[in-house]
Design goal:
Blueprint: E1 7-13, E2 18-20, E3 26-32, E4 39-45, E5 52-59, E6 63-70, H1 76-86, E7 93-99, E8 102-115, E9 126-132, E10 138-147, E11 149-153, E12 162-163, E13 166-167, E14 171-175, E15 178-183, E16 192-197, E17 201-208, E18 211-219, E19 224-228, E20 233-236, E21 239-240, H2 248-253, E22 259-266, E23 273-283
Antiparallel strand pairs: 1-2, 1-7, 3-6, 4-5, 6-9, 7-8, 8-9, 8-10, 10-23, 11-14, 12-13, 15-22, 16-19, 16-23, 17-18, 17-22, 19-20, 20-21
């Protein structure tokens, strides 16, 4: 039997338990659906002439199908019990898929199909399981963060001098309102922007590329503003900001796209805040 040793897949169940398909006990035979998801194209006949009019397209939700087999037939009864217990459709699953050293994640998946036939004694049954995610994309294995500040060196000396007036400063925190993010994901990613006020800030303006939007809420020292573009929501100190203070569709349209993204987070009247942007990369396949 030929194993597919280029893959390693760890499945994490929503209650915290996990199962590793490529291990000392298990060998992966095949994986389908980790490359590209299916595309649905809509069309209608032309009123005159040949061919059709393409009216739209969309990517379908992603389904990943895996077949595995136990390496040791002698342990088959115990391994079968583990399979039956773990693959419970009452839970959701996240798949951490590694192929040739690169890892991406399938999120919030449901078991859409599973077969683990009973076999005669001495034979090893093959497990075939499919996981259906509501998303068409695969997600990066970690979240990227960009801080809109940096430490600027004041002295080219590694020693520290102390006197009656205290320590001599060797660096200072420099804040900026603009940064360029280089993104290599094949699909646009929705960012989360965090603004921490150190004084009075009469609203925040955000620009990503050609898109610009404003959050019209006053911030005071200690306030934390979070703009979650994936959820199309804005939070201030944990509570939702009223929709009248921002444009819902502008927030949803803010995306980090392939290549260089020029990002600005500012208020023309105040610099009394610190900001950070984070996102999880999205990919059309592994």
């Amino acid at each position: 039997m030929k194993y597919n040793e280029k893959y390693n897949i760890i499945v994490r169940r929503s209650d915290g338990y996990f199962f590793q398909y490529e291990s000392e006990k298990w060998a992966i035979l095949s994986v389908e659906g980790a490359d590209f998801t299916k595309i649905e194209v809509f069309k209608e006949p032309r009123g005159f002439g040949n061919g059709d009019i393409i009216t739209g397209k969309r990517k379908l939700s992603r389904e990943v199908s895996i077949t595995v087999v136990a390496r040791d037939i002698e342990e088959y009864p115990l391994i079968r019990d583990e399979i039956m217990a773990f693959h419970n459709s009452n839970y959701t699953f996240d798949l951490e898929i590694t192929y040739q050293g690169r890892t991406l994640n399938l999120k919030e998946a449901e078991i859409s199909d599973i077969i683990y036939p009973t076999e005669r004694y001495g034979r090893n049954a093959i497990l075939a399981v499919s996981f259906l995610s509501p998303y068409s994309d695969l997600f990066a294995n970690s979240t990227d963060y960009t801080d809109f500040s940096s430490n600027k060196a004041l002295w080219h000396d590694t020693r520290v001098y102390e006197g009656k007036t205290g320590k001599l400063a060797f660096s200072e925190l420099v804040r900026t309102t603009e940064k360029t993010i280089n993104y290599l994901g094949s699909e646009p990613a929705s960012p989360t922007i965090t603004v921490a006020a150190t004084g009075y800030v009469p609203g925040i303006t955000i620009e990503i590329g050609d898109l610009k939007t404003e959050i019209k809420t006053n911030l005071y020292k200690g306030d934390i503003l979070i703009i979650d573009c994936e959820k199309k929501s804005v939070y201030k100190n944990g509570g939702l900001v009223n929709l009248s203070n921002y444009n819902l569709w502008d927030i949803a349209a803010l995306k980090i796209k392939y290549g260089d993204n020029n990002v600005k987070i500012y208020n023309p009247q105040s610099s009394a805040f610190h900001s950070e942007i984070s996102y999880t990369g999205r990919y059309g396949g592994l």
